[in-house]
Write a sequence for this structure.
């Protein structure tokens, strides 16, 4: 009785085929993992809270209305202290604009105006969310002066 034993010539194609299959499976898994990572990065958004303009108008309205819960939600400790100092002076302001200040890329200056006054609110990105850090009321800006005539 002769047993059918595989010869070396029969086993070589078998090894090559199984190695190729394993390689294809490994490459497919790596491609799928890469695609899943890309999809995750494109769709996952961190909660950054409200934009600075919304925070500025919400805080101004909350101070006028006496809504302490909203003030606490959108301010830092320093911001709360400065709002308390200007509490009775915030009625009648209308929103102007918000812009990054040159010295700090995490802070935006939001300006609100009314006849005779200007409210400057400094909204800072703290731990991924914008919060009011400083509030100042001052006189309205003076109109620009014309250049001297010669």
């Amino acid at each position: 009785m002769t047993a059918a034993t595989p010869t070396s010539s029969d086993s070589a194609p078998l090894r090559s085929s199984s190695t190729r299959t394993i390689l294809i499976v490994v490459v497919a898994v790596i491609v799928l993992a890469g695609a899943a990572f890309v999809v995750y990065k494109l769709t996952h958004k961190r909660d950054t809270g409200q934009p600075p303009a919304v925070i500025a108008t919400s805080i101004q309205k909350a101070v006028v209305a006496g809504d302490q819960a909203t003030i606490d939600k959108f301010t830092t400790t320093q911001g709360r202290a400065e709002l308390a100092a200007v509490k009775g002076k915030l009625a009648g302001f209308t929103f102007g604009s918000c812009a990054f200040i040159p010295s700090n890329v995490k802070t935006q200056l939001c300006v609100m105006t009314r006849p005779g006054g200007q409210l400057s609110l400094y909204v800072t990105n703290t731990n991924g969310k914008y919060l009011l850090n400083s509030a100042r009321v001052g006189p309205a800006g003076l109109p620009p002066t014309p250049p001297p005539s010669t």
Notes: The chain is about 45% helix and 25% strand. Strands lie at 94-101, 104-114, 117-126, 129-138.
